[in-house]
Write a structure and sequence with these properties.
Blueprint lengths: L1 E5 L3 E5 L4 E6 L8 E6 L5 E6 L5 E4 L9 E4 L6 E6 L6 E6 L4 E5 L5 E3 L7 E6 L6 E5 L3 E5 L5 E6 L8 E4 L5 E5 L5 E5 L5 E5 L6 E7 L2 E6 L3 E6 L4 E7 L6 E4 L5 E6 L2 E6 L8 E4 L8 E4 L4 H9 L36 H81 L1
Antiparallel strand pairs: 1-2, 1-28, 2-3, 4-5, 5-6, 6-7, 8-9, 9-10, 10-11, 12-13, 13-14, 14-15, 16-17, 17-18, 18-19, 20-21, 21-22, 22-23, 24-25, 25-26, 26-27
Length: 422
C-alpha cells in the first residue's frame, strides 16, 4: 500500500516496509505543497501547491516507478482540496477568496457553492459524501449540504482560531482544533457540542478519528487520545519534539506521526517507543500523511467479517439455527461475490508486506535485546576488572608498607637492646 508524505515535496513509501517508491519534487515557481488527498480507489493523489493549479499524481505501483503528473482543474489560488469518499471523479476545492467549488474530473463540470466570508483553510467530505466541511482562516467551520448551501456554522469554544478540522469516517461527528490548543467535537446532524477540552499548551497541528476514539497532536510534543463514549482523556504521551501530522491505518494498531524530517510508526497500545523511525529529509515538518485506500479495503472487509454463532454461514448470527443440516447438490453454490484478480493480488501483496514487516519488527526487537544483554554483560565484566585491579593494588600496597613496618620495628628493637647494654 502506498503512503504519501507531504512537506515541501511529496514522497511515496510502501507501507508497512517504508521502502521508498518515488517522489514529486515541487518546481521552484510552485514554492511548496500545501496539502494532499487520495481518491477513493487509490489511483490518484490530489496535490495542492502554494502557487499554480492543482495537480493529479498517479501513485507508483512499485519502487522507483515513474510518476505521472498532469493538471486537473484550471483554477489558481487554491488553498485546500479533497476527494470525495465514495466517488473517484468528484473533488472539492477551496480558494483564497472564500469560494468553494465541486469539480467532476470526468465531465469537467463545475458546481459553485455559496461563497464564504473568509479564505478556505481546509476541506473534508463526510463518509457518505452528503456534507462538505470548510474550515476558514477566521476560525469558523461551515458545513455544506447537498445543495451547496451552508447548513451550520461551528467554532471551537473559547478560541478565535482554527488549525484543522475534519469529519469522522465512523460516525456523524466533526472535530475541530485551534492554534491555542483547544479542541472540540460536534454532532454533524444536530450541531450539538459533544465535548470540548484543552490538553495542549500550543497549536494542535492534526487530529484523527479511529472508531470510538479521537487523537490529537501538537507542537508541544504531546499526543492525546480521547474516548468519544465517555468524553474523557484516556492517554497523553510526550513523543519528544514538535508533532506536525498523524495518520491511522484502519485494520491495524499502527499510527504514523510526522515531525521535523521524520516519519515515525507507533503501536497505539504502546506509545513509549516508536516501532520504526524514517528520516524523510523532505524540507521541514511533515504537513500531511495519507495512506492510499487501495488494497486496504479488502483487508479491512475480511477483518470485519465474523464467524456466525450458529456455525452455518447461510444463517446470520442474529437468527437462531433451526438445527437442521442443509443438503447441497453436487454442484457448488455460486459465491456471492467474485473478486477480481487485481484485488486478490493487492490483498496477497498486503499480507506478504505485513508479514515482512512483522518479521523485521521481531528481528529488530531481538537485536535490541541481544545488544542490551551484551552491554549489560560488558559492564559487569568491566566492573569486575576494576574491582580486581583495585584489590591487587591494595594487596601490593599492603605488602609494601607491611614490609617497611616490620623492618622499622626490628631496628627499634636492636637500638633498645643497645641502650639496655649500656
Amino acid at each position: 500500500m502506498a503512503l504519501a508524505v507531504c512537506a515541501r515535496d511529496v514522497k511515496f513509501y510502501d507501507w508497512p516496509s517504508f521502502h521508498f517508491m518515488g517522489a514529486y519534487e515541487v518546481p521552484a515557481e510552485y514554492l511548496s505543497v500545501k496539502g494532499i488527498s487520495w481518491c477513493c480507489d487509490g489511483s490518484n493523489l490530489l496535490v495542492i501547491n502554494s502557487k499554480g493549479e492543482p495537480l493529479l499524481i498517479t501513485a507508483p505501483a512499485k519502487s522507483q516507478t515513474k510518476i505521472s503528473i498532469h493538471k486537473c482543474v484550471p483554477v489558481v489560488n487554491v488553498f485546500a482540496g479533497v476527494f470525495a469518499k465514495k466517488r473517484s471523479n468528484d473533488l472539492a476545492l477551496g480558494l483564497e477568496n472564500g469560494e468553494v467549488n465541486r469539480f467532476d474530473l470526468q465531465t469537467k463540470e463545475f458546481v459553485r457553492y455559496k461563497k464564504l466570508p473568509s479564505g478556505i483553510q481546509n476541506l473534508d467530505m463526510s463518509a457518505d459524501d452528503q456534507n462538505l466541511l470548510a474550515g476558514c482562516f477566521d476560525g469558523h467551520i461551515f458545513l455544506y449540504d447537498t445543495k451547496g448551501t451552508p447548513s451550520a456554522s461551528l467554532m471551537v469554544p473559547n478560541s478565535y482560531s482554527l488549525s484543522t478540522a475534519l469529519f469522522s469516517n465512523y460516525s456523524k461527528l466533526v472535530g475541530g482544533a485551534s492554534k491555542d490548543g483547544s479542541f472540540a467535537v460536534w454532532n454533524a446532524e444536530t450541531t450539538d457540542l459533544e465535548f470540548a477540552c484543552k490538553e495542549h499548551t500550543s497549536r494542535i497541528t492534526d487530529l484523527g478519528f479511529l472508531e470510538n476514539t479521537v487523537t490529537t497532536v501538537g507542537t508541544d510534543g504531546f499526543l492525546c487520545i480521547f474516548d468519544l463514549r465517555t468524553s474523557s482523556l484516556i492517554s497523553k504521551n510526550n513523543l519528544d519534539g514538535a508533532l506536525s501530522s498523524l495518520a491511522y491505518f484502519p485494520g491495524s494498531y499502527d499510527l504514523a506521526v510526522g515531525t521535523y524530517n521524520q516519519l515515525r510508526s507507533y503501536d497505539v497500545r504502546n506509545l513509549n517507543t516508536p516501532i520504526r523511525t524514517l528520516l524523510v529529509n523532505n524540507g521541514g515538518h511533515i504537513k500531511s500523511i495519507a495512506a492510499s485506500p487501495r488494497g486496504l479495503e479488502i483487508a479491512q472487509s475480511s477483518l470485519d467479517k465474523t464467524v456466525p454463532a450458529s456455525g452455518d454461514f447461510s444463517i446470520p448470527s442474529n437468527y437462531p439455527s433451526s438445527g437442521r443440516l442443509q443438503e447441497f447438490e453436487a454442484k457448488a453454490a455460486k459465491p456471492s461475490r467474485t473478486y477480481k484478480q487485481s484485488e486478490v493480488q493487492e490483498l496477497e501483496k498486503f499480507i506478504n508486506d505485513y508479514m515482512k514487516y512483522i518479521s523485521m519488527q521481531f528481528a529488530e526487537k531481538m537485536a535490541q535485546s541481544f545488544y542490551g544483554l551484551r552491554i549489560s554483560t560488558s559492564k559487569q565484566f568491566i566492573c569486575m576488572g576494576e574491582k580486581m585491579d583495585e584489590s591487587w593494588k591494595n594487596f601490593i600496597s599492603y605488602l609494601r608498607f607491611a614490609g617497611e613496618s616490620d623492618k622499622g620495628s626490628t631496628f627499634c628493637s636492636k637500638d633498645s637492646l643497645k641502650d639496655k647494654g649500656k
